Amino acid sequence: MKKSATEQPKKKDMYKLTFGNFKGKKEAIKQLAAVKKKFSNASLIIEGNCYKIFFGEYDNAAGEKALETVKAAGFEAELA
Fold first, then answer.
1. Which residues of the chain fall short of a pLDDT of 70?
2. 13, 60 in Cβ contact below 8 A?
3. Any idea where the domains of the chain sit in the sequence?
4. Would you identify the CATH topology of the domain 15-79?
5. What order do you get walking across the sheet with 77-79 strand by strand?
6. Is the full-model pTM beyond 0.85?
7. How much is the pLDDT for 58?
8. CA angle at residue 80 from 31 to 21, to 5 degrees?
9. Percent composition of the chain: helix, strand, coil (DSSP 3-state, to 5)
10. For residue 62, what are the CA distances in angstroms to 2, 38, 59, 79?
């Protein structure tokens, strides 16, 4: 079956890989400095009224691999 020119390809679900749930900005920045020693691409994001360290956005397979890497470095990250 041929696809029409207007049919969009299905988007993959993407997941955020984050670490921590900090109320205070100072604590979040302190933790970010420690994380950046091993993961230079990490950054700080705000979700609601909390700060989180953000590693990236991944599809499921790549996210699981990245999560294993982050956890192996000693950080209790989550993929959501």
1. 1-11
2. yes
3. 15-79
4. Alpha-Beta Plaits (3.30.70)
5. 43-47, 50-58, 15-22, 77-79
6. no
7. 96
8. 30
9. 30, 30, 40
10. 30, 18, 6, 11
